[in-house]
Amino acid sequence: MKGTIIKNIAFITGSAGFIGFHLSNLLLANKWTVIGLDAITNYYDIKLKHDRHNILKKNKNFVGYEGFIQDNKLLDKIFFSHKPNFIVHLAAQAGVRYSIENPLSYVESNLLGTFHILEIAKKYKPEHFLVASTSSVYGNNEVLPFSENHKSDNPMSFYAATKKSNEVMAHSYSHLFKIPTTVFRFFTVYGPWSRPDMALIKFTKNILNKKPIEIYNNGNMRRDFTYIDDLVQCIKLLINVKPLNPENRISEIENDSISKTAPFRIVNIGNSNSINLLDYVKVLEESLGVIAEKKYLGVQNGEVLETYSDVKLLKNLIGICPNTSIEKGVMEFVKWFRSYYD
Asked: What are the φ and ψ backbone dihedral angles of 144, each rounded to 5 degrees?
């Protein structure tokens, strides 16, 4: 008697977004079925979102939906029809600065939207629920590098506050309904197909158009830059590393952040290499062959001055961690930028 073939079917929210597009592409390349949902909001150019989704739709194993994660009827229809066994929740209203201008959009998408995803997870019981958070939850923590077990309840921006809330909400559902849950804390992701509101693409457009780029805190900022291909490879591997219920745990992993009361874990995904903002700009200038005109400004309200990831747990769980150099990552971005925007 032949054994049952178990299909890998992932439901990815934000599938037309920067990270969602790359993750969907990677899973499809590995013969997964991907069910994608994206609201295609006009926070930035929707052409970029449609172009990403159109690439995914060329694969017969991709099914794309346009709609809001707050639409419970749509979610129920998707899960009843496709029965995905994994959820990767990436959809969110992003951006530290925009959260000061339009905080309500963060409440609606990040808080209410995540609640509806948690409710659908409670109903359909996926094998593993994975949700995106951000290094911004660490705030201006003075202990570096940032470890998953560090204090993270003093966010500097409303965006970070909503993502920390998502972590706490997900823990409660994991505990109450025994949903294996992994939270990712992403560290400054960059690369091809990135959002137009991100620093790298804004810098590139201004440099090529001979406009000044804005350098906050007079350049005294450091970031742990994570290349997109590294990030989604880590997510793919973590999908199969489910946190166990406390009563089923046999051995503890060193540096683990696993909850004592739920099948719940938080994992940093970063390059573990904090780089000065001006050095980052210099690498971009070299890739473009153009020196940027720089406009130095004070610190931006809500911005963290330095991020630096401790990725020992990530490596203990999947055996690898991001390692693409900033030179190679920026060069790949510039190649895509010239191809796409020319």
From this structure: -120, 150
Single out the residue of 42, 241, 23 nearest to residue 132, CA to CA.
Answer: 23
Which tokens belong to 265? 């874990």
Digit-by-digit pLDDT tens for the chain (342 residues) are 344 445 799 999 999 999 999 999 999 999 999 999 999 999 899 999 999 999 999 999 999 999 999 999 999 999 999 999 999 999 999 988 889 899 999 999 999 999 999 999 999 999 999 999 999 999 988 899 999 999 999 999 999 999 999 999 999 999 999 999 999 999 999 999 999 999 999 999 999 999 999 999 999 999 999 999 999 999 999 999 999 988 877 667 888 999 999 999 999 999 999 999 999 999 999 999 999 999 999 988 888 899 999 999 999 999 999 999 999 999 999 999 999 998
Q: Amino acid identity of 60?
A: K
| 65 a catalytic residue | no
Helices (H), 192-301: 199-208, 228-239, 277-288
Number of Cβ within a 10 Å radius of residue 312:
18
Tokens of 283: 């690498």
pTM: 0.95
- Please pick, among 43, 106, 159, 227, the residue that the annotation labels catalytic: 159
Please answer whether residues 29 and 100 qualify as being in contact, where contact means their C-beta atoms are separated by less than 8 angstroms. no
Q: Distance between CA 5 and CA 290 in Å, rounded?
A: 54
CB atoms closer than 10 angstroms to residue 182: 25
Q: Helix 46-57 vs helix 18-29: angle between axes, to the nearest 10 degrees?
A: 10
Output phi, psi for 183, to 5 deg.
Answer: -105, 130
Q: Are 105 and 308 a contacting pair, CB within 8 Å?
A: no
Q: Which of 210, 209, 197, 202 is nearest to 293 (CA)?
A: 210
